[in-house]
Amino acid sequence: MDLSNEVNNPLGGQGSVDIQALNERIKIESSFVETLTAETSKVIIGQKTMIERLLIGLLSSGHVLLEGLPGLAKTLAIKTLSTAIGGQFSRIQFTPDLLPADIIGTMIYNPAKNEFTVRKGPVFANFVLADEINRAPAKVQAALLEAMQERQVTIGKETFKLKEPFLVLATQNPIEQEGTYPLPEAQVDRFMLKVKIGYPTKDEEQQIMRQNILGGAFEKVNTVVDAQTVLKARKTVRDVYMDEKIERYILDIVFASRQPAEHGLNKLKNLIAYGGSPRASINLAMASKAYAFIKRRGYVIPEDIRSICHDVLRHRIGLTYEAEAENITQEDIIGHILNTVEVP
């Protein structure tokens, strides 16, 4: 995609955008990403996609739903990222007997003062790991998801703002479904990304094995970025240039998931129960801007959209019984859409 030094801004306001100047500014302001990635790689071997997606969520004010088997460094990844940014980390193990108060906090009676005082829950942190979120009942899931959406919590008569930056990483085990409470589609939609992670390569696992058998000889992770740098970067991410053709490309992809027949995808008509919501369009645009920022570029290209599309859409497309009977997955449908929709 050819971008001249100066292009018209389709959103108006500033008139034209100097792409070259914007590109140089973002190269400078995104330099911390490389430092942050290098610091996390001291402890996290492989799993580059997971770390990258966590950074996209962090830079886009979004949250991440992670699906993977136990032992794939999900907890270690978010804890390491939290340390590298100097943020507060908390982990909530979701179980069937968990209550909303165990997450957001509650009112505790103080007999000495003869009054109720607020005890804040573990959601009051910068990085919250909701481990096996589908093991808790719907009311507990809803308590966390409300905090994610509103970024505030009400306890008694008081409302408290959550700390910024605020990132929730929720995990699900794709295999073991006994005793679980699947997240309703409307709640899953609140996650910006759903990331599937697999096993490391043989060489990576050899490194992991050596690291652990040598007395757990992990390198110490240092704080290399502060929260203010991340918050400043969030504003810069919104400045990443997105051409009107790229906007139309995003809309074509999302609308193809809703009305496949109108986009030359007749084969998908009886396979899709529902397509991506408007959140899909918004999140695909924001995630692609964050992806471009991580790649130290001041503008979005179609490849950014294609790289992040599966993670944005896989939890927003519903399958019909016919699709399930034919073993067709969301991955297949998204791949078919990307191969059909015209690239600008």
Overall shape: it is globular
Tally of strands = 13
Order of helices and strands: EEHHHEHEHEEEHEEEHEHHHEHHEHH
Percentage of residues in DSSP E strands: 15-25%
Class of the largest domain, according to the CATH hierarchy? Answer: Alpha Beta
The number of helical elements comes to 14
- Total number of domains: 2
What structural class results from the helix and strand content? Answer: alpha/beta
List the strand order in the largest sheet: 4-7-10-3-11
From the alpha carbons, calculate the radius of gyration and give it in angstroms.
21 Å
CATH names the topology of the largest domain as Rossmann fold
Helix content: 40-55%
Low-pLDDT stretches are 10-15
Please outline the helices and strands:
Blueprint: E1 6-8, E2 16-18, H1 19-29, H2 31-40, H3 48-59, E3 64-67, H4 74-85, E4 89-93, H5 101-104, E5 105-110, E6 115-120, E7 127-131, H6 138-150, E8 152-155, E9 158-161, E10 167-172, H7 185-188, E11 193-196, H8 202-213, H9 227-239, H10 244-258, E12 272-274, H11 278-294, H12 302-313, E13 318-319, H13 321-325, H14 330-340
Helix pairs in contact: 3-11, 9-11, 10-11, 11-12, 12-14
